[in-house]
Fold this sequence. Notes:
- There is one protein chain.
- The chain is mostly helical and about 500 residues long.
- It has a single domain, classed as Ribonucleotide Reductase, subunit A (Orthogonal Bundle).
- Helix content is about 60%, strand content about 0%.
- It is built from 22 helices and two strands.
- It has helices at about 5-15, 25-30, 40-45, 55-80, 80-85, 85-100, 100-115, 120-145, 155-160, 165-180, 185-215, 220-235, 240-245, 250-280, 290-310, 315-335, 350-360, 365-380, 430-440, 440-445, 450-455, 465-470, and strands spanning about 415-420, 425-430.
- The chain has a two-stranded antiparallel ribbon with strand order 1-2.
- Strand 1 (about 415-420) and strand 2 form a beta hairpin.
- The N and C termini lie far apart (about 80 Å).
- It binds fe (ii) ion (2 copies).
- One fe (ii) ion binds near residues 107, 134, 197, 231 and 234.
Amino acid sequence: MALLERSEWYDLARQTNWTPKYVTEEELFPDEMADPYHLPQEDWDAYDEPYKVAYSEYVKTQREKDAGAYSVKTALERAGYYANANPGWQSIQTLFYTAVPFIEYASGSMFGRFTRFAKGGGMRNMASFGSLDEMRHCQIQLWFGYANLKHNKQLDWAHKGCHSNNWAVIGARHTFDDIEHTRDVVSSSIMTNLAFETAFTNLQFIAFAADAAKEGDYNFSNFLQSIQTDESRHAQIAFPLVKMMVKNGKKDEAQKLIDIAFWRTWRQFAVLMGMPMDYYMPLEKRERSFKEFMEEWVVAQFERQMNDLGLDRPWYWDIFLNDLEYFHHSQALGIWLWRPTVWWNPVACVGPKEREWLEKKYPGWNDTWGTLWDTVIENLVAGHPEMTIPETLPIMCNMSQLAITGVPGKPWTLKVFTLDHEGRRYNFGTEVDRWIFQQEPDRYKRHLSAIDRYVTGVVQPQTPEGMLDYMGVLNQGGQDAYDYSWVEPYRGSPQGAE
Ligand SMILES: [Fe+2]
Ligand SMILES: [Fe+2]
């Protein structure tokens, strides 16, 4: 029997909806799960997905991708790649394999809800494939990470991380639960597919794949690219939705969703990607700086996309561009200092050559960050690594769940943005984080940051060891990835002159 071409049956098949007889339309698609914006059903019926695929085609392509990724993995394992990799690159892998899979899983679950509650057949269809994509991403990263467990037990965090109360996990969970798990189909799709996937996954997977290839890690590079080909397809799910929102006079609502989600994702990615690209990546292998990647993949492209969709760039764009200059540097420094609180081995890597590179890429880096690193180096040269570990806790932002950081001096950017709400004081790292809270206080007000949990006695015993235990890292926290060998050039000369 001859098979029909996809184009001959697809539109008809995916628009075959049924009219509910035993329940009302509202019961079938409750607002809080489906569409609180009440977009007209004829617009939902006209939802035209930008990318069409049938199940048989999907399976064929995905099978080929997996076959490619798994064969490179086998070859590199045979060559003992991971065990012999540069410690900085091993830390990147540990961080990536342990932080990313559960976000992929969250995306899979979100797409599952779209498959059930989206009111347009086209969107349900794309979301079904999106769900399968994300399950593949989660599984492949768990599997690739676990393959190296025999070399590094920290990789066990790939599975257990999301169940822990480590501060870094709390931050990621707060962000992605907010945008992916706790909203209706329309809001989650605009926030996740557009603000997160369209804006940031190119950076995560393409830019990083370029770095990985330079490092000689073809395994990592190859599977990252195989993931991105999925992301670029399902990230488009929100495009027709935004057009529907604009057409129906809901532009402001769509814009606000973008503004919230872009900022929330940005702050997480500044840590997840900024720190590895500018500090962990061995200097001679760096493709470009984090800021350069951001300018190309996020700033320029995202702005263009917003324009095409009839939206504006977020209201805080100037704050964001300023953040791009300093935020990830402060987080890299802070995370290295508080290394016993994380499960991977942070990289300082601020030897003379690295500092030269940072100064070139971020003019003023030495004046801004160098003096603190000088003190760290002096202590290490004097044989006192214990003096480089802080004895206090940072103040954490009640939105990003990251340490509140800034730069003293001129201009002075170190500031806590506070808000008193129903008898509780909240601390925020920026005006934008506070603004997000103010948009919907009931959504966020009960959450306790890692530090709140310590101060209010949720953590017991209320001691530094009790806190490390609560976060899952007692006696197994991160160590300097290079065992301080990067300090060698400074011995005998505080400035590191050779
Ligand atoms: Fe994914
Ligand atoms: Fe995705």
